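dumping the sequnces here before i forget
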Amino acid sequence: MLSLLWLVPILPLVGFAILAVTAGQLARKAVSVIAVGAVSLSALIAIGITVAYTITAPAGTVYSQTLWQWMRVGNFAPAVALHLDALSMTMMVVVAFVSALIHIYSTGFMADDTGYSRFFAYMNLFVGAMLTLVLADNLLLLYLGWEGVGLCSYLLIGFWYRDPDNVRAALKAFFVTRIGDTAFAIGIFLLFTSLGTLNIPAVLDEISTYAPGSTLPTAAAALLLVGAMAKSAQLPLQTWLPDAMAGPTPVSALIHAATMVTAGVYLIARMHTLFVMAPAVLLAVAIIGAVTQLVASFSALTQYDIKRILAYSTISQIGYMFLALGVGAWAAAIYHFGTHAFFKAALFLGAGVVIKMLDEEHDIFKMGGLRHRYPLTFWAFLFAALTLAAVPPLTITFNSKDLILNQAFLSKGGRGLWILGLIGTFLTAAYTFRMVFVVFFGPAQSRPEKTPARSMVAPFVVLAFLGAIAGIPELLTAIFGSQNLSSFLRSALPGPTRDFPSADGPWLFQLIYVATALAGIAVAYLLYERAPQYTRSVVSTSVGSWLHRWWFADWGFDWLYQKLFVGPYVVLARINRNDVVDLFYKGLALISRVINGLLSSTVNGNVRWYVAAVAGGAVIVVGLVVIL
Amino acid sequence: MATIPVETGFIIAGLLFLLGLIGVLVRRNIIYILLAIEIMLNAAGLAFVVAGAHWEQPDGQVMYFFVLTMAAAEVAVGLSLVLQMYHKFNTLDANLINRMRG
Amino acid sequence: MTSADVLHLLPLIVLAGGTIIGMLGIAVYRDHILTLVITLGTLIGAFVTLRFPLHSPNEYITPLVQFDGYAIFFLGLLFLTALAVAVMSYGYMRGRAVVREELYILLLIAMLGCSVLVSSTHFASFFLGLEVLSVSLYALAAYLRSQPTDIEAGLKYLIPAATSSSFLLFGMAMVYAHTGTMELSGLAQFATGTWHKSDLLALAGMGMILIGIGFKLALVPFHFWAADVYEGAPAPVTALIATASKGAVFALLLRYFSAMGIQVREPFFVIFTVVAIASMFLGNYLALFQSNLKRLLAYSSIAHMGYLLVAFLAGGRLAVTAVMFYLLAYFITTLGAFGVLTALSNKDTDFSHLAGYRGLVFHHPLLGTVLAVMMFSLAGIPLTAGFLAKFYVLFAGVRSALWLLVLVLIVNSVVGLFYYLRVIVAIYQPVPLTPEESRAGQPYRPAPSASLIGGVLLVVLTVGLIWLGVYPGPVIRWIEALLGL
Amino acid sequence: MILAGLLIITAGGGILAWVVGAWSERACRWVALLALCADLALLIFVWVSYSASGGALMEPPWLLQIDYPWIGPLGIRFHLGMDGLSLLLVTLTAFLGIASVGASWTEIREHVPAFHLTLLWTLAGTMGVFLALDLFLFYFFWELMLVPMYFLIGIWGHEGRVRAAYKFFLFTQGGGLLLFAGILGLYFLHARNTGVYSFQYRELLQGVASSSFAFMLMLGFFLGFAVKLPVVGLHTWLPDAHTEAPTAGSVVLAGLMLKTGAYGFLRFALPLFPNQSAELASAAMILGTIGILYGAFLAFAQTDAKRLVAYTSISHLGFALLGIYAGNRLALQGAIIVLLAHGLSTGGLFIVVGALQERFHTRRMDELSGLWSSIPRMGGVAMFLAVASLGLPGLANFVGEFLVLTGTFAVSPVLAAIAALGFVLSSIYSLWLIYRLFQGPERRMKEAPDLGGREMAIFGAIIAVIIWLGVYPQPVLTTAKPTVDSLVSSATYVMQAADEFGERERSPYEETGAPEAEYDER
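..and the predicted 3d for all of it:
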């Protein structure tokens, strides 16, 4: 079974190739079959591999497969090779599975779109690239997938290219992430130049011989971190993600919630030894994560657009994952990634259903009262929201976040982070349920009756359900101490030092977390369902409105970047359109013309002047003879 | 016969040459210009004669004959051109024949 | 004088005899074709009889001239040039209602002057050759006397030329007065020795001789006449002035100064360097935006003489080879360019305005292509003789480490490229005009007056040019053999 | 004999096309196409037989040579030789030549026979440049490719062609003459040292004493090639020439002619003057870096699509310069891949812009918008090429640029890091181009057909090669290896350049002592 590994990334790529070559000539039916078929087959194989791997783990818990030697110059010899261990396998299976579901959903969502074939081509390409990223055995191949998903993100955000705003959002996403990619690339140069290999296990082996905190690991980790920050929309490179919601909703669900944006998390987890060797950077990861989740939560509180709320929520949740990575809760980060992939995708798909039913309405305040009209959607959405807000016992996944907070609490000097995380938990619950209350409760708006396609609802419900129950293994551990994800991942990632914050067991902390989340929900209920007029009055005070605008505008980051980078670059480019260097040559040409004019005027046609010139020349020549 | 020192001869020839040159430069009438050129040529001829006398060779005088002949040929062509010029331009002012320039 | 001596001098005798026969012929029966035939016959005869001195090159017959390999090379070149000019003149004069025959006589006389110049070893032959050449050129320049520009050209040539000749003569007298000899060998003996303060008279005299030579070559600052004379003179005559006259004088310069070896000594080295640099720059910059092709070629020739001076200054055997090859290439190129110009001229005007050349290649492919090739050769682009010529000059310069001159030459080649390209651009400009251009008036569409023989001439020149550019080995070897290398 | 055959087929094909063209324009196009296809077939044969022979060579690194006397008295010989580098570049020449003929199929309607004559002669000149092993012959071909190119721009170009052609010619000739002076100086210096007048590459390789004179000569070579590459500062001819040239001209200019500059560095400037080049290496690398960024910056500023594409060349070839002067194996191999990749991607983009101009009669990006919906296939192709040009992994440009930067990093981490910003800037201009042309609201434009079969065939081939180079560049790397090896082994400049920066940490290649055995894997 494991030997089929190469099919996992290749199948979607084949799907892409077919769709690209046929270039929209195929019937929709055929397109669906090819695209969904390729990804589903890939997902099935992934699941099969997972099962096979779990039953009989290969020797050394690692299975690798070399497809071909990519290039070889001296000892620069990256291969196109796949690396399967617990970490990459977890990622692979989640990615493949969620992708397959979202592909199915898309056949419904995109049913009427003119660019049907193009959409699926991009989606397939994305899945292929993402799986390559996850399974890559060396940094260069990982980088290939990394850039590949970035490209697909750009292509899909700008999918509806007729609207310049969409294209601009796409460009922004690509440019910002490319900055991170460049840092990543420099990190690769550094690692290769210093270590002479790009193979990830080899790099990690080599790097562990360095002293912790020495220059090389610190610099390399910092560079990789910048790459991860841009990809995962962490402060201060988060600005592209909210705009990225311009893409079709399945894209937001798949790329900008479940998979691609978590690539940064994966990168750090994959390179964990490197980061461990660079404690300063690791601390930075934690701080960035903690601050990001807080900042994004505040922004999420102020948004109207349902997809933007979810986008900020994504930023915030990835912030949690970063926090987890930063405090060394490697497995918890991956665990949170897994659950997040399910419930956030579910939320997006739900939002997509709502948006589609309401004719492309994005403003939550124009929705309202949808609870009765779309009960199934409502319940699934609610489940996912509860999962996001981390409320037991309706959802069992709450403890992915709790693990992170516990670990933060335990880490050295992590109390502050723990408090930040706790505030975040509160805010998460608040903004999530603000959305739930505003969209599904309250007075209903009259809208034409529509029924969502079954292909859309089914994946949505499945994902919401999976999100809610994904916590089971961890919970079982908590109760029975049996085999769980963390210990499964231990073959690839270092485990936590201690499991519980205090000797009293987890219960006290668990209680704090649940109380915080419930408080958040309560506040949301009060402010948006019970007494919305009070909210309005708070917002209308000068401080309130200022804060509201500030948070709404993503803390002014966009404004700052516009002034600092984009504006000057564009203005300078415009000024220099004709290239200052050319002025030098134009000057030469002008001088030549002037000289020519001056000289021509000496040839004035007067023969006596000519004779005078001869006489003058004679004087000069004879004079020179005499002088010299 | 007392020979004139070569220096004296050359000074006279040089003065004559200079006179001719000045004539070419300052006169506007083309006939006078031709005349001045003749003076220059003859100054050169004189210089040859002086030099030939200095070395007691006939070569200087032979050269003078050549100079004379060529001067005559030049003047012949020159005067015919002046004639044509007068036909076409109705003037003998050298400053006015400047249709071509630049 | 033995019969061997007569044979040795036969080329000159044939030339002089042919001139007389031509004159008499006109007196008896005035006919264009007859005169042409006599002229061509004379030139061919002279060319063929070059084989006599060739087989006994160093025979010393008279102190005035010497037919060594060097002279023979130039004589042959000059005779062929005259042949080409005569052929061009035939097409040019054919349709004109003027006396046509004397042109050929004057051409032959000019050739006689040139021949004496290139083989001269004595001030007397130097002066005589120069004057014979000059006087016939005055007359030739003003040959179409019905046109004011021709008269103007004649006068503008005559007055400065005569002035400069006086300088030349006076300079010769000074040299003679100091050294007591007018023979090249004697002069060389003087010049190769050490110079003292008292030698100033002779050195100043040499400086004045240079003025006469510089004038003929149109070197800066004696260059002013060139453009006006080129423009005013009939096209074939311009071709003659541009090639034979300059070539012969340069050959003489090289012979005298190489023999004396003084161009590499102070102060003449400085003078020549200054003159060369000035000529290159002024020539090229004057030509830059020139809209009259004849004037453009005049200015370009100033620059080319500057290039040649670089080789000349390099000195040594290589310099001689370089100059010979360069002149060969330059002759072919210039003749080709003027050949096209002549072919396009009609009886009203010489076809020299650049605007008229627009799209030439599309209505007269042969003429257009030939002119373009000639321009590339002047610019020194490979596949043409001009490239190898420039190569030789640069090589001579590099070998003698004349870095300043080499650099100036390179810069000037780029500048020069610009105006040669202007000609080429015009030739290849597609015919439909832009609105501004049609407002400025429809350009003159030439009706070429080229005769068949003229066309053949152009083709021969072009083929020769490219042959020299692609496979010059035999020619180089031949030149070296002539020089006895 | 194959080498002479290549030149004869190309040049002769040009003449044949010209002659046949008088009878039928269609036949003329076919003759040109077939001649180039024959070249390509010949080259592939050479490549295959070389690979099959296991890389055994009579006289490494030369695969093939021919040598005849030409101008005896001056020591000039007709000496052609092909090594891996030449083979790659000549193959690129034939390939892009075919693409250019194809791209001109309907675009060029005037003076068709003459067009193909000039085009094929340009290509012949370019091939000659890549093959010549006699410096005089090299210069001869160097000029030979410029003259027809000048006509290509000047006759079949767009509105501003005359000015652009002037500028092109003056710049390249100026550089060419400096190069020529350098060649002559070297010729002379060699003769002074050995007494033999020779333009033979092999003989001149004996080396020149390090002196200020040699440095001047090297500078002549450097400037000559720098104009062509172009190095920033000497680049202003490029946008004009590329913009105004007809499509085929732009393809040949960008795809091939610029490569001759880089080839010159690799073949002549570095091996002939290793010590002098070392002195210049840091400056050249800085220039390369500036070129990468400045070219990308200028590209973004343009409103004319073709001009934009033209400026990207400056940026891409900045990588080549950087790689060449970084001078280690990785960087040199990278530079070679950059050359090939740039030829394909930028050449392809020029064909796209040309196709647009043919359809809409404008290249201005503010007059075109939202074309994707009406001509989606072209949009897809353009997107692919833009993405290739911004260096997406898995495509050719990435391999080259990444290798260059990795190699450079070992020599100068700072420059490599700055140059890496080119990744960001290149993505800006590439996607900007796509945005302005293909995305955004649809304009009411004239109905235009999408890409037809002929165009799809051209693009299909280009795309296939770009992907091939992106995912499996090994055959190319292996082919170029002997050349790179001899460069690296002879090049003291590498070490010196590294010392100069003094920032190198542990360089893996020197330590491992060139693991030949594992490296030779094919």
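Residues 89 and 99 of chain B are 10 Å apart (CA to CA).
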